[in-house]
Design brief:
mainly beta; seven-stranded mixed beta sheet; four-stranded antiparallel beta sheet
Length: 125
Amino acid sequence: QVQLVESGGGLVQAGGSLRLSCTASGHTFSNYRMGWFRQAPGKEREFVVTISRSGDSTYYADSVKGRFTISRDNAKNTVHLQMNSLKSVDTAVYYCAAVTDVEVAFTTVLAYRYWGQGTQVTVSS
């Protein structure tokens, strides 16, 4: 299995940027599709973006498309989420997730087997 640790969260003003990182340890990182989800207090965990094992395919939630960019560096066992033009509605705990064998329904929480502990992103307005 793989262990995931997120970092890079913090407090930022609306319109600003943050770059989240997820570092994986355990089995080969390139075996995993990676995703980012977020959860605001009292809300369901929601899909943000996913990236394929090779990094050649990405899929974004409509709410972040054009503002967020996911990337991965398999040599460094990391996936990043560059968040630009942040809005107050982006405030949430952001979770990194991984799965090996799910090729469809990758926008759902249940599709992912492994999860990080989350990192808080707070956007002030």
